[in-house]
Amino acid sequence: MPSAGKEEALFSKEVDEDEDEEEEALEKYISYMGGDDCKEPARAWVDCMVEAEKNKEDMDTKCCQHASTIEKCMNSHRDQYQPLLALATTRREHMRRGLEEALGIEIPKKGTFRYL
């Protein structure tokens, strides 16, 4: 089970463009996922992201299936991955509100946009 405080290190507000630190952050993510059921889907997603970046491909398009697999896995182990799930929920809500404001329309909270 992930320990308290790892989320803070994993999701620090500083963004560093140094490749070594980026790789370290990805390894921290894999470590955070632990030896549990979601480690392999997490590794596949990270590998996909690295490959997409290397090949200058769109990460969201290329790796969306991996992201979906991780989300399903984490939802099936909610007690263990609550910090990550809470972040994802907050991010989706923030994106939904931003789109509503930018487009001047109301976007339903669930069901219409899969990745919001």
Automatic annotation (TrEMBL):
Residues 15-24 have a biased composition (Acidic residues). Residues 1-24 are annotated as: Disordered. This is GCK domain-containing protein. Residues 1-14 have a biased composition (Basic and acidic residues). Pfam families: GCK (PF07802). PANTHER family: F26F24.3-RELATED (PTHR34357:SF2), F7A19.14 PROTEIN-RELATED (PTHR34357). It comes from the Eukaryota. Residues 22-99 form the GCK domain.
